Amino acid sequence: MSEGESGAAISPPSDTFRRDLMALLPQLRAFARGLCGRPEQADDLVQETVMRAWTAQGSFTPGTSMKAWTFTILRNHFLNDLRKNRRQTQLEPGVAEATLVDRATQEEGLHMQDLQRALAQLPEERREALLLVGAGGFSYEEAASICGVPIGTMKSRVARGRGQLHQILEPSAHD
């Protein structure tokens, strides 16, 4: 027996536990790859799972399903990583440099104000149609259903609204 960090005696792992854990590696890898989709991340996940199972082997009840126990460890670790890394993203090579460059944004606010003023000049039904289809991302069918009009009417409102919006925003193109 060896001593752990707390000074308590830790019994060596049984050969059965080691053999059963090693036999599950291919299934753990397949499950991990299915969860994360990236082989290198899946291998890291399996390695962490095996380490956690190894250190927690005292909590494993012999005679129960080691497969279910280790898959639970893997899944919980994966979900914890997802929660922890929710705000982190992986950058492609070269993207970081492009991200560090800040482009001028002064004109964007002015363009948005121009667009808002132009939208306010449109008739209500055309503005509503453009906002649903253009900004809201609804299909013509969904927008027509929301407004309670036939799909042809919705398509017409969007087309006419876009044309009128273009005339308001680019008056020199139509002079």
Automatic annotation (TrEMBL):
InterPro entries: RNA_pol_sigma-70-like (IPR039425), RNA_pol_sigma-70_dom (IPR014284), RNA_pol_sigma70_r2 (IPR007627), RNA_pol_sigma70_r4_t2 (IPR013249), RNA_pol_sigma_r2 (IPR013325), RNA_pol_sigma_r3/r4-like (IPR013324), WH-like_DNA-bd_sf (IPR036388). Keywords: Sigma factor, Transcription, Transcription regulation. Residues 23-87 form the RNA polymerase sigma-70 region domain. Residues 113-165 form the RNA polymerase sigma factor 70 region 4 type domain. It holds the Pfam family Sigma70_r4_2. Belongs to the sigma-70 factor family. ECF subfamily. This is Sigma-70 family RNA polymerase sigma factor. It comes from Novosphingobium aquiterrae.
